[in-house]
Structure prediction request, 342 residues.
Amino acid sequence: MKKMILFCALASLLVLTSCATMGHMKTVGELYPKMYQNHPRSIVIMPPINHTVNVEAKEYFYTSLAKPLCDKGYYVFSPFLAMDLMKSESAYDSELFLKGSVAPFRKVFGADAALFTIIKRWQKSALLSTITVELDYILKSTETNEILFERSGIVTKDLNDYNSSGSGLSALLNTVTTMVATALTDKVYVARACNQYILEDLPAGPYSSEYQTDKDSDASVPNLEITIP
Amino acid sequence: MKVAVSVVMIIILTSCGTVQPLYDWKAYENVSYLYYKQQTPKAEAKLVKNFESMIAKPGGSTHKVPPGIYAEYGYYLLNHNQKEKGLKMMAVEIDLYPESKSFVERIIKQAKK
Prediction:
């Protein structure tokens, strides 16, 4: 009985400490105060700016952004539809809008903010058996043209973990199959993971119950670097 | 006693977990990605099936169809000779999410071209 009580006490302690934060962390409100002054409701996702030679990266990454932003509580214009509209208005040169004004997106889309992403690295290393994506996220207000939120992430996935079980020939076959079958889907998976990590610190939008109340929650570093299993 | 231990374990496992998501996307992320990648009849059928199922049974904590889905499905229908149903879907998007009004109206105008 005593052992049980001790176990429960230890377990409770674990619960209390595991979610706790490290010292000297900034809050979301301190890092991204303009989000709380500007309170955008709707976001248009701009076509990603691609600094890599991988042309496909841009298209696949573009489609992966809507869901995590909606899940944060924002209204997000469907990227598939937005792309068609941008093409018809000849307004898909993201670099131009990042440097210049995003006000047209308020007029044309009724968007409160525009999300820019820059793909800096999107790379699979066969030698190291890793995939690395390096992405910048910049949210600009269509009202004031100010940057409301800015974060960057370098996310690496270790593919060796796939092959941890099995040995000899089966392990070798696994490796080959993994590399052939998942050349692109793995990259999409890593990009999705990067979205999750980066947008975790984006203050919640109006459809979330945490809207305007998450100011004091702890924020992670603005420049994230992480290896995922 | 076993019950107590189980309860504690459940608390541990769930305490750091995330709250219920706002929406239920079903398989949207994957089917839309596959359709975007290659517009095969099979990928198209899966996408449509997923739209229908998201609309038939909205889940998550909001019990609402996620932003953009009615508009996306409506746009698809407009471009596939189902104008009436497509326009109806577009109207629901505006009702559900008023932020979408100018965007959806422009999309309808463009589809009519």
Chain B has one domain: 21-112. Chain B touches chain A at residues 1, 4-5, 8-9, 11-12, 15-16, 21-23, 25, 28-29, 32-33, 36-37, 61-62, 66-69, 71-72, 75, 97, 99-103, 106-107, 110 (CB under 8 Å). The mean pLDDT of chain B is 87.
